[in-house]
Amino acid sequence: MKHLKLLFLILVLNSIIVGAQSVNPNQALVDLIPSKKWFEIENYYQQHKDSIDNEFVKLWYLAETGSVFNRPFEAIDAYEQLIDKNLLEMDMPTLTYLFGQPVLQLCADVQEYVKGEELCRKLMTIVQNDSIAESDIRLSFIQGLTQVIEDLKLGAKNYPKPEIIKNEVDGAEDIKLIPNKSGNGILFNAKWNGIDLRTYFDTGVTYGGYIRNREIAERIGVNSIRPIL
């Protein structure tokens, strides 16, 4: 179902993006985004952003790449605009599925619980005002969004968003790599709340880091964190 809806979206975009030039940057980006070749997508956008003038395409790019390249708030804003403006006049289920679900998951991932609840209620209003979908479909969506709100409230209670203190780095010379005899990963010295600690650089981390030692966590003043091994 997901692939069918994505195909539908691409076909609609193909029909509205028309250009006299041999290669239309809007169309090229539309074709690239479903591939999920994120670095290729990012490079293409940066090279052609002055020629990408279709509002939907730009918002779709921002929404899809924001979470990948650690721009979650930019992504959340783009998703919200896609929902508010509904530039392709999608039906309620498609709009909710393509943009509502991913933005709510993103809000939960980055612990933006209040924003997530706000978007849930916005989507519920869209569902309630829909006059095309059958009543049982609307009810199913309302029930699902109601459950998401409860999950967000529970997340805010169990995993409150911690206060983050930014560490300033004057230059590259402040970062000292540590020889790793196992050859598995990159270790370096970094300051955490002003305290030097050996740090592991992990390219697989999505929206944060993990402290594996409770004593170290308490030492640098981390009071609200997910369970520590």
Q: What is the fold's blueprint, element by element?
A:
Layout: H1 2-16, H2 25-32, H3 38-48, H4 55-66, H5 72-85, H6 92-109, H7 113-129, H8 135-158, E1 176-178, E2 186-192, E3 195-201, H9 214-219
Antiparallel strand pairs: 1-2, 2-3
Helix pairs in contact: 4-5, 5-6, 6-7, 7-8
What does this structure look like?
The chain has 229 residues and is mainly α. The protein folds into 2 domains: 157 residues, Serine Threonine Protein Phosphatase 5, Tetratricopeptide repeat, CATH 1.25.40; 48 residues, no CATH class. It is 55% helix and 7% strand. Strand 1 and strand 2 form a beta hairpin. Helix 4 runs antiparallel to helix 5 and helix 7 packs antiparallel against helix 8.
For the residues shown, what is the average pLDDT?
A: 82
CATH architecture of the largest domain: Alpha Horseshoe
Give helix % range: 40-55%
Strand content: 5-15%
Shape: flat
Q: How many strand segments?
A: 3
* Distance between the amino and carboxyl termini: 39 Å
Tally of structural domains: 2
CATH topology of the largest domain: Serine Threonine Protein Phosphatase 5, Tetratricopeptide repeat
Biggest sheet descriptor: 3 strands, antiparallel
Strands side by side in the biggest sheet: 1-2-3
Low-pLDDT windows of residues? none
Instruction: Provide the succession of SSEs.
Output: HHHHHHHHEEEH
Q: Helix- and strand-based class? A: mainly alpha
Gyration radius (Cα, Å) is 22 Å
Q: Give the CATH level 1 class of the largest domain.
A: Mainly Alpha
